[in-house]
Amino acid sequence: MSQPSLYDDEAPSKSQKKRDAEALQALGTELIALSHDSLKKLQLPENLYLAIREAQKITANGAIRRQRQYIGKLMRDIDPEPIREFLAVLRGESDQHTAWLHRLERQRDRLLQDDEALAEFLAAHPDCDVQNLRQLIRNARKEQAESKPPKAYRQLFQLLKSLSPAPGLPQHATASDSNEDDEDNG
Predict the structure, then answer these.
(1) CATH code at 14-78
(2) Does the pTM exceed 0.70?
(3) Treating both helix axes as pointing N-terminal to C-terminal, what angle do 151-163 and 95-113 enclose, rounded to 10 degrees?
(4) Is residue 21 a contact partner of residue 74, using CB atoms and an 8 Å limit?
(5) What is the DSSP annotation of 86-132?
(6) Which residues contact 114 (CB under 8 A, 6 or more apart)?
(7) Most exposed of 61, 86, 111, 124 (fewest Cβ within 10 Å)?
(8) For residue range 117-166, what is the model confidence (pLDDT) as tens digits?
(9) 36-60 pLDDT, tens per residue?
(10) Nearest to 93 by CA among 29, 179, 26
(11) What does R_g of the chain's alpha carbons equal in angstroms?
């Protein structure tokens, strides 16, 4: 029988732990760059939220470095994946979020072209304001026919966006909380 090696342990190496800590610190640095409203949407633990807000006020290089390290340490106690997904959505790097936006665009176009699509949509979304939806569809059709700026067309998209849960955003954040640049200008 072979002798068990000292390195057969399942625990991560010291180097791996250091890389993980540095990755969390880098993620924390991205959080420092976020606006107050974006940070609120993440619903971070209170101590982490306060540490990030404090880091946003610090201007001294040594102090900000120590604060980043502290934030990285606090982040070891939370799951970083939801934060990474949220940041990917904000950066426009989420394929899942982009596909969701394309589905909404197709749904909007179907609503404008086919009255049966409206009945299907209303069956799927019984809580929708029917009168407002019909008005937006009428106005968007009129805008297209008269080659006017697509104000109602965009409002219809925002309405659809508010009625459909956005992938990659925290559960409490609404779809309209993501970048307004998500919508096409079609």
Answers:
(1) 1.10.60
(2) no
(3) 120
(4) no
(5) HHHHHHT--HHHHHHHHHHHHHHHHHHH-HHHHHHHHHH-TTS-HHH
(6) none
(7) 61
(8) 888 888 888 888 889 888 998 999 999 899 988 898 899 888 888 888 76
(9) 888 888 888 899 999 999 999 988 8
(10) 179
(11) 23
Q: What is d(CA 150, CA 175) in angstroms, rounded to the nearest whole number?
A: 20
Delimit the domains of the chain by residue range: 14-78, 95-182
**CB-side exposure of 143: number of CA atoms within 13 Å?**
17
Contacts of 1 (CB under 8 A, 6+ apart): none
- Domain range 95-182, CATH architecture: Orthogonal Bundle (1.10)
The token duo for 166 is 């956005």
